[in-house]
Amino acid sequence: MSVPTFQAAPDIEGAILAVLRGAYPDWVSAKFVMETVGLLPGADPVSPFIAFLNFIIRINACLASSGFQAVRTGGTVDDHYRLSPVGES
Fold first, then answer.
1. Peptide bond into 45 cis (omega under 30)
2. Pseudo-torsion of CA 89, 61, 67, 15, nearest 10°?
3. How many CB atoms lie within 10 A of CB 17?
4. 45-80: buried (b, 16+ CB within 10 Å) or exposed (e) per residue?
5. Sequence-ordered list of residues with C-beta below 8 angstroms from that of 35, at least 6 positions apart, any chain
6. Other C-beta atoms lying within 10 Å of the C-beta of residue 31
7. Phi and psi (nearest 5°) for 8?
8. Closest CA to 66 of 21, 16, 10
9. Is this model's pTM higher than 0.90 or not?
10. Rg (CA), the chain
11. Residue spans of alpha helices (H) in the chain
12. What's the average pLDDT block by block, 10 residues per block, for the chain (89 residues)?
């Protein structure tokens, strides 16, 4: 099964997916992904993380028909993410 790409993805979603694709099948930290795509915390560390979570939700909606999903180990910036075939985690 090949790892999917976005054909017409917005920049941030495409960049996040590119990081996850590059790491596949390994896990990467949310912090690493966020820093790589430019979602830096600055004075407010919560807003960029919430934006990141919303991007993951949109990525999963786009991946729904591909047989892949973005999965995570937990719900904090210290947790890890990866692409996974649907039904696995």
1. no
2. -80
3. 25
4. eeebbeebeebbeebeebbeebebbbbbeeeebeeb
5. none
6. 17
7. -135, 50
8. 21
9. no
10. 12
11. 11-23, 30-37, 46-63
12. 53 93 96 91 84 93 91 93 86
